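Quick one: structure for this chain?
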Amino acid sequence: MCYSHKNGAYILQEAYNNASKFISTPAIELDVQTESVDKVNKQLRTFIPDGSLRTFGIVESVKDYIDANWYYWKQGRQPSQGHNLYIGGKKYEISNPAEGSNNEEVVKLITELQSQLIDTESGILSTRGIISQYKDSRRTGTLQFRNLTLDEFFAPYLEKKSEVIINGKKHYEYKWELVENEDITNFNILIFKNTDTDQINVVSLTALDIDKTHKLNRRDNILGYHLDNVNAVDATGKLLLKPTYGNIEMMRLMFLLNELIPSFDHHCKLGDISVVGSLGFNIKSQTYPIEMLQSNFNKIISVLNNVESSLNIQNNFRTISTVSPVDSLIQMYLNIL
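Got it. Here's what it folds into:
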């Protein structure tokens, strides 16, 4: 198996082999030490000191979402009298006559609606909400995400290996298992393990628009708080990633993975690393080449170790195998058979 019992990182539940192996909920659990979480948070605060980045990003995403949908929502009433907005089949009467994202009343309304969707405890588009829909999909054998983009993205992780009838009901064994842990969930991250190949795929979830750029310290590179644009290159001279919310999210994920990798067993292979963004808005997804992520991460930890020597960040990605592009293409082909 892919995870080391010796390190106490991953635990398989019992009764995995016979009829009970056809489970309807994931069986793999992950134990993350509190000090590991604290260490990652300290690294992230050094990487991007601006603690208001996410809040600002939500506001930007809300305003872009309003402008993109304004003329679809608006029906009736004159601007001088306000607007009638029809959103999700419900009518909202807006007294403010301003148009689009200039309307503070509408910005407040959409922010509240989206906050309900991504609320960490009850939102259907929060990490816990998506995990719940994933489990419902496994239990029923059909996609339960209520969103076409999410259905398409998570469909490969619901590929069935076999099924068995127990007490007249179908139970399924799946090719992918979800690694569950409260700390990982709080980081808005999902980790999937392929039970046949020991490949690990990782997904980061965010409400931010992953395509939108947010300059860091007025600079147009992922290390903007520490490097000017001229010096923002990796070891091969290639430009570092642009500071889009998606790329920033990916680097946040790389810091956490870097801390988890020492717990992985030697058969483990790191596969796809993806971000699903704009949750609650126009949902998007993107999968990144691991080589590109590694070259950027190498540069980032080199710079951060110089900025704050006490961090002493070790590059653990050098100790883990990765899935080759050919293997990825083969897996993609198998997923659609």
